[in-house]
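Hey all, quick one. A colleague (J.T.) asked me to put the magnesium ion job into the tracker so the inputs and the structure tokens live in one place instead of scattered across chat threads. No bug as far as I know, just bookkeeping. Sequence used:
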Amino acid sequence: MESRIPGEPAAPLYRIDRGPVLLTLMALIETLDLWKTYVMGAEEIHALRGVSIQIDRGEYVAIMGPSGSGKSTLMNLIGCLDTPSKGSYLLNGKQVSQMNDNELARIRNEEIGFVFQTFNLLPRASALRNVELPLVYAAIPAKDRDARARAALEKVEHGSRMSHKPNELSGGQRQRVAIARALVNNPSILLADEPTGNLDSKTGIEIMGLFERLHKAGNTIVLVTHEADVAAYAYRTIHIRDGQVENDVRRAA
Ligand code: ADP
Ligand code: MG
């Protein structure tokens, strides 16, 4: 950066420009030389081999790669489900790499909304109760939980079937409920692993349309997929191969 003031750190946490105040905030996700090694008996499997990526708030990113390339491993690290063998991971300014299980559970609940291929809803609970669940873990009072869960279901256009149980809903409706559950805590990141993998193509397109609206509304989305037509919805695609970033491509907004 030529405009750097002598003595200023190379990567300032923020910079205030003249005129309207612009804050150049640090990246929401910043991984530095992330390694994940699984030990299987005498064998070591390097699932990730030095992944360094930055994702800013408000980005919509797809992580693509062939089977076994390390996508799920990377998603588990980004989602604070696991810690790396080596390297650092800063999420929203917090160092995740060294956290213990309790700290990981807390940061997950605060920062991450997960959407899975198989929806992972509680079968005996209504749509509304499923969406309320993260708020129960966050110890939000019952009255507020109900209002927030209803609002999240409205956001995903699932306002009319709140009392239905998952088996009374179609695949697309289940995924909407799962997305509402992911959003209800106002997470920093929506992390979706093959969210259309169990849907027919028409329903898949509707769900990708919903992600697009959530992105336009300011949500940060990281989508893991092996399908190019799903990745095409994102504005940036990070290709993973053999545990490394192969390339990182942005398209015009
Ligand atoms: P992808 O999601 O892209 O298919 P993964 O992240 O699941 O890839 O796996 C990357 C590599 O790490 C693969 O070689 C896989 O076999 C290995 N691997 C993943 N999870 C484990 C585990 N828990 N124990 C041992 N090896 C694993
Ligand atoms: Mg996988």
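Adding what we noticed when we looked at it: The first helix runs from residue 71 to 78. DSSP finds seven helices and ten strands in the chain.
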